[in-house]
Design goal:
Layout: H1 6-11, E1 20-22, H2 27-37, E2 41-45, E3 51-56, H3 57-65, H4 76-79, E4 86-88, H5 93-103, E5 107-112, E6 115-121, H6 122-130, H7 142-156
Parallel strand pairs: 1-2, 4-5
Antiparallel strand pairs: 2-3, 5-6
């Protein structure tokens, strides 16, 4: 299970496309898209689709709410995390989790060479470990994750 490639995990995610906003977007634009898709992070793209950063719920809490910024006028580039940790799609679940823990990241950008494959979260990887045969729900869909966890606990107890 932990030797599975992250690329294979991405193929089982409910949301297949890379969710992104342009670097000209406001925080409110990004939050609207994140909310509509039920996700906790979104990629910020520059010209030609280059990845310039990532905006996470943690960024929103620390750099928008805590600093009293107006989400309608604040550009995402002012509050995003510019350094997105990148991994190849052949990286194992174990190595991806190790990187996340060591570097305190909750999301990794998965690439094949220079081609972006998607974004994987720590929740995606943990869901895969707990229930490897079940498609992975979009991040933030608490009911689905909770139901899967309850099913896993029941199966461990033989119910």
């Amino acid at each position: 299970m932990i030797t599975e490639s992250v690329g294979n995990i991405l193929k089982r995610k409910e949301i297949q496309e890379l969710l992104a906003v342009p670097n000209s977007a406001t925080v409110a634009d990004a939050v609207a898209k994140m909310s509509s898709k039920g996700i906790g992070a979104i990629i910020v793209q520059g010209p030609g689709g280059t990845v310039e950063g990532i905006l996470t719920e943690r960024d929103l809490m620390r750099r928008v709410l805590n600093e009293g910024r107006d989400a309608r006028t604040t550009p995402v580039t002012a509050v995003m995390s510019p350094n997105v940790r990148r991994i190849g799609s052949a990286v194992t679940v174990e190595e991806a989790l190790r990187l996340m823990v060591v570097h305190n990241h909750r999301h990794l950008l998965v690439e094949d060479g220079t081609e972006v494959q998607g974004l994987v979260s720590i929740r995606d990887l943990m869901s895969w470990i707990v229930l490897p045969e079940t498609p992975i729900a979009a991040e933030g869909r608490v009911g689905v994750i909770k139901a899967r966890a309850e099913d896993a606990i029941k199966s461990l107890h033989g119910k």
